[in-house]
Amino acid sequence: MPRHVVVRAANRLHFGLFALAAQNTAQPAAQNAAPVGANEERSYGGVGVMVDSPLSLTLNIRPREVVRKTDSPLAERIQVFARRWSDFYSRPIDDAEIFLTNHAPDHIGLGTGTQLGLSIAAGLAAFFDLPVPPIEELVRSVGRGTRSAVGAYGFSMGGLIVDRGKLPGEFLAPLDCRLEMPADWRFLLVRPLQGTGLAGECEQVAMDQAARNLAPLTEKLVTEAREHLVPAAATGQFADFAASLGRYCETAGQFYADVQGGPFNGPVVTALAERIRSLGYNGLGQSSWGPTLFVACENESAAQLLATKLRGSESTAPIDFAIARICNSPASITVQ
């Protein structure tokens, strides 16, 4: 049995879903060029990217020598995911001690839950000297991927992920495409330290209340991703990518306007977004339910400059800043 397994997983930025309830998307704008999900009743889908930041996750699994009590804020979630994995494979895990040495706070829009669950599943497989299974089995073993598949494919591949969306009866949405993004690009993460995004039952209630059957929004999002966002990322055209990203995120936020009071989650996040735009940065979005905002920056210097400008602005709420690099690699599993 390995002495120590270390899993390192990046953060997930989600640019927004294509749809909520299953619905038919419109015909493609260009002849013989089918958009993501065309003519299929798919739910969810969307676009996101994996990034390395000071908040990226590091999970450790080692033989349990004594029972230790942990005060980690994610200790309960670790136990839940570990039990699910144990039940799925009918394998006891009493010999394994699982703990984190670095992670983002839960429910701030960085996909911590999915990355934690998949890190536990992949880490336990390595700990017990089992082959790491395909991503769909990993997801099933810890009960993730019920809506978006961006974080799941991001864990296994890294880079920019386009999730096609789920047909009825599909457990994990199929991957539409995965792209490696320019290594010099950065995302500045801007997060109010007060408040969190929605999760669990609250998230489900909000999803139920959010606007539905808005086929024109879905058509617009799919077209934006297919014709502008993905091509700009693939060819390294930063200005085009940032402009498209801003349009995509603004449109995706309209699904939740009635729930959030607009495309952003509440007045504090909205004020931050308006401040960023006033400084001339248009590659802006809210990751998932927030409160984390992300801003596309062409390089490290541009990200540092924006952070400096925002630190110097007046604000009634404390804000955390982090510069994130593109992560074009899958999560790493190291056996020591």
Write structural notes for this entry.
The protein has helices at 75-89, 112-127, 135-142, 150-157, 200-209, 215-235, 238-252, 257-260, 267-278, 300-311, and strands at 5-9, 11-17, 46-52, 57-63, 96-102, 160-163, 175-179, 186-192, 284-286, 293-297, 319-326, 332-335. The chain is an alpha+beta fold. The protein is globular and about 55 Å long. The model is unreliable at 23-39 (pLDDT under 50). The longest helix is centred in the last third of the chain and has 21 residues, at 215-235.
Can you lay out the helices and strands and say which pair or pack?
Blueprint: E1 5-9, E2 11-17, E3 46-52, E4 57-63, H1 75-89, E5 96-102, H2 112-127, H3 135-142, H4 150-157, E6 160-163, E7 175-179, E8 186-192, H5 200-209, H6 215-235, H7 238-252, H8 257-260, H9 267-278, E9 284-286, E10 293-297, H10 300-311, E11 319-326, E12 332-335
Antiparallel strand pairs: 1-4, 1-12, 2-3, 3-6, 3-11, 4-5, 6-7, 8-10, 8-11, 9-10
Helix pairs in contact: 1-2, 2-3, 6-7
